[in-house]
Amino acid sequence: MMIFEKARENAKAMEDMGRRAIEESRKLGAPAYYVDPAFGDGIIKELPDGTRQRVERIEGREIVIETLGSDDCR
């Protein structure tokens, strides 16, 4: 049981760290990039205004595949 408890603690710590990184990016006015299974496959770009986009890199260019908005799941 101890191993599973430690794994849950580590997962929570990683989630918290990710949230803090997104908040710091927002404060700096920069987009944050991450993956989130709640949005499916791919890279999520979160803009400082909270808008989220699913993006891909194609031939060195960033392509917006879908705009998710700021009210979508998190």
Question: Can you offer a commentary on this structure?
Answer:
Strand 1 and strand 2 form a beta hairpin. The two termini are about 30 Å apart. About 35% of the residues lie in helices and about 30% in strands. The protein is globular, with a radius of gyration of 14 Å. The relative contact order is 0.13. The chain has one domain. The protein is an alpha+beta fold and about 70 residues long. The longest helix is centred in the first third of the chain and has 27 residues, at about 1-30. A four-stranded antiparallel beta sheet has the order 1-2-3-4.
What key attributes describe this structure?
74 residues, alpha+beta, four-stranded antiparallel β-sheet, 1 helix, 4 strands, 28% strand, globular
What overall form do the CA principal axes indicate?
A: globular
Order of helices and strands: HEEEE
- What Rg is obtained from the alpha carbons, in whole angstroms? 14 Å
Strand order of the largest sheet: 1-2-3-4
- Counting structural domains, the number is 1
Which residues form runs of ≥5 with pLDDT under 50? none
Strand proportion: 25-35%
Largest sheet: 4 strands, antiparallel
Our measurement of the CA-to-CA distance between the termini, rounded to an integer number of angstroms, reads: 29 Å
| Mean pLDDT across all amino acids | 87
Helical/strand content category: alpha+beta
- What is the strand tally? 4
Helix content: 25-40%
Tally of helical runs: 1
